[in-house]
Design goal:
With 328 residues, the protein is an alpha+beta fold. It is 17% helix and 27% strand.
Length: 328
């Protein structure tokens, strides 16, 4: 099991010599001038699939040591944070056994790396992912093991920051509520929908009043059934759930829906159907604007993310040099 220090993300930040320049990407990413791009360490271990998805949702890719500078940055992050077991790289062979490429499609043969002693060994013919060890060498591992990882976004052009404080143009500011919203027409399970919203700097939308419920209803109305990739085309997942499964419904911010300001259920709802999983313990809305309960795990639904205009992108760009990573 991977061992790492408590609060290691903040320890990592202590080793950054910060300067400030114009522009920015996300407040939680740091610009490395030698890479001409941004990095973010994720020190909570995850599977390769979850690491890939998280970086993608943040607008980045799972980092690979594609060149000397990226290699040095990834090795230095481990040194600064105290990671003792290695970090996932974006190099994998999940599409074709034995054919390793980076997330960007760069084949293993073109990536400058050194295998650790007795690696690769493809133990039990199950090792299709590659980690970088603290000493900079690499090893093959199972993709369903969990390791920390680093997300990377290369700077092509200066990001365009919208009124919603994000580089994502699909978030739209609603003046009546002061929040920004994004509709996702490709269904995800409720929990994966919330994970998506969190990765984008927001959360599953919470109707805090009848007025906001109308805003969400109107957003939903702008996406007819034939555009939604889900079995259930007239239900959209929102940010509330029955946390303890005792019919008390809370928002993802910890308030009861009554305290939050909107608790208007559709007729016969919540019905807590047990047709899937262990019941309908997560929240949603019909096209009528009235609330519904849905399954948390097994069934995908369209969903709406909400975020504050200033919650994602910093006013300035945090910049540091490779020479400051891993030094004490």
């Amino acid at each position: 099991m991977c061992r790492h220090l408590n609060c290691v993300y903040y320890i990592f930040l202590l080793y950054i010599a910060s300067a400030w320049t114009d522009g920015g990407f996300r407040f939680d990413y740091y610009y490395v001038k030698e890479l001409e791009g941004w990095l973010k360490p994720h020190l909570m271990p995850a599977t390769f699939k979850d690491a890939f998805l998280r970086c993608n949702l943040e607008g980045a890719v799972l980092a690979s040591p594609l060149d000397r500078n990226l290699h040095k940055a990834m090795e230095g992050i481990q040194a600064a944070s105290g990671v003792a077991c290695g970090i996932f790289t974006g190099i994998h062979a999940t599409f074709s056994k034995g054919d390793f490429t980076s997330i960007e499609g760069v084949p293993l043969e073109k990536i400058p790396l050194e295998w650790a002693l007795d690696e690769p060994d493809n133990f039990k013919n199950q090792e299709d992912c590659i980690i970088m060890l603290p000493n900079g060498t690499v090893a093959d591992v199972r993709c369903d093991e969990t390791f920390p990882y680093v997300c990377y976004r290369k700077k092509v052009n200066s990001p365009v920051i919208t009124a919603c404080g994000t580089v994502d143009p699909e978030y739209k500011l609603e003046s009546s509520t002061g929040s920004c919203y994004k509709f996702h027409g490709t269904g995800r399970t409720w929990r994966n929908a919330q994970r998506t919203c969190l990765a984008q700097g927001g959360y599953l939308a919470i109707p805090n009043s009848a007025q906001e419920a109308t805003v969400l209803k109107n957003i939903f109305a702008g996406h007819p059934a034939n555009t939604i990739k889900s079995e259930f085309k007239d239900v959209v997942a929102l940010g509330f759930l029955d946390w303890d499964q005792k019919r008390t419904w809370y928002t993802v911010h910890g308030q009861t829906i009554e305290e939050a300001g909107y608790a208007s259920w559709a007729g016969g709802q919540p019905d807590n159907s047990r047709a899937h999983d262990n019941g309908s313990y997560c929240g949603a809305m019909f096209r009528t604007g009235l609330l519904d309960d849905i399954w948390c795990e097994s069934v995908p639904f369209a969903f709406i993310c909400e975020k504050a205009p200033d919650s994602l992108v910093a006013d300035d760009e945090k910049q540091f040099s490779l020479g400051t990573i891993g030094t004490k």
